[in-house]
Design a protein that fits this description.
Length: 269
């Protein structure tokens, strides 16, 4: 263990989830959320990460404070593990590997320190609730931007035939590991996006950000069977009307709102 580590505390005025997603994307370590702040730690200096946070803050017009320090090392991974609590969502009990399963729930193991999503974020939890409600056994399911693979694992536990993809190779590796931890199999897995397959699915989920959803909207539409379900998440208030308009040929089944985050459940007519 190194004698020192580097710590970056990010305190945005609003939309903390967007900054959390950025830190998770740029770092392979877990990010701790505490009292309105995000705490990132790494053995390498974090000046470049702080710069990226400030660039995002300026782009969104959100006042954000950052504090970068060099700290004497301690076992903060163990401290983080102690702070991560299991989560009950509909049929699922989502837990890190070091916690015990819960009777009466479908067991999902996701290790936050190794993953891009553990179910606690508002957009992810709403996606999981939608999957619990709309995914059936034998459904063909595609998770676009799979991150940790948590959505695909949930769908697989319900008996779906799952394909997963992400443009980030590290995310794909993390998703494969979480499928292994849960003793589940996917059918196809690739580094890329929805345009890298010609298959059509009963359910397609994309828990990303609105800008990307709008950018790849045409490809997402093509992947849904007639009468199939499209779950779109990671959409903040200011973009919800744009996303609805982009997918106006789909029927809106539900708009699940959790704080400033929206999850749209759409049906292809």
């Amino acid at each position: 263990m190194n004698e020192y580590y580097y710590q970056l505390i990010v305190t945005p005025k609003s939309h903390i989830g967007i900054f959390n997603d950025l830190l998770l994307e740029l770092l392979q370590n877990a990010v701790e959320e505490k009292e309105g702040s995000l705490i990132a730690r790494d053995s390498e200096p974090l000046e470049d990460i702080e710069w990226a946070v400030k660039q995002l803050s300026n782009k969104l017009g959100i006042e954000t404070k950052t504090l970068l320090t060099k700290e004497r090392n301690e076992d903060w991974i163990s401290k983080y593990k102690n702070s991560v609590r299991p989560l009950k969502l509909e049929k699922f009990y989502i837990r890190p590997q070091w916690e015990n399963p819960e009777n009466g729930f479908i067991d999902i193991i996701i290790n936050p320190a190794l993953a891009f999503g553990s179910g606690h974020h508002e957009s992810t939890s709403s996606c999981i609730k939608s999957i619990s409600k709309y995914v059936k056994s034998k459904d063909e399911f595609l998770d676009v931007g799979c991150g940790s693979g948590i959505l695909g694992v949930c769908a697989a536990k319900l008996g779906a035939k799952v394909d997963i993809c992400d443009t980030d190779e590290i995310a794909v590796k993390s998703a494969k590991e979480n499928f292994r931890l849960n003793d589940m199999d996917f059918v196809n897995c690739w580094v890329g996006s929805a345009n890298d397959t010609t298959n059509r699915y009963d359910v397609v989920a994309a828990n990303i950000i609105a800008d990307i959803i709008l950018m790849i909207g045409k490809d997402l539409k093509k992947r849904v069977k007639f009468g199939g379900i499209l779950i779109l998440s990671g959409i903040i208030d200011k973009y919800i009307d744009n996303v609805k308009d982009k997918f106006k040929e789909f029927e809106i089944i539900e708009n699940i709102q959790n704080k400033e985050w929206h999850t749209l459940v759409l049906k292809r007519k």
